[in-house]
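Form 7-S
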Amino acid sequence: MLNSISHIALVVADPARTALLFKDLFATQSVRRVDADGHDETFINLGNTWFLLAKATVERQRTGDHIAFHVTKADLLATVEKLKTMNLEYILARSDSSLYFFDYDNHVFELDTTDISSELGREG
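Output:
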């Protein structure tokens, strides 16, 4: 019944600033449009999934909720260096096989070098 994820909506204070963060980290481009109902929307594409950056003021606490992307070790280490340069908070975990970082609105993202399907004994 379900296919791939169409998009993930993240509520952010400043969509342009958040889009720039991901452009700086991953060279992703943003797409801004006004939909048929007049909503001003900003989209970015991460890991072949569209993220809608919806503008609103929300005080978000950090929780264990996060979005994880599979990456190579080299890409994980390159992202660590970018985060250091940008003076952004991050956490290396699980013997440095995972990297957690935070956007400006406390969304948590993970870069993971392990293959979860293999770990679970499943195909793709």
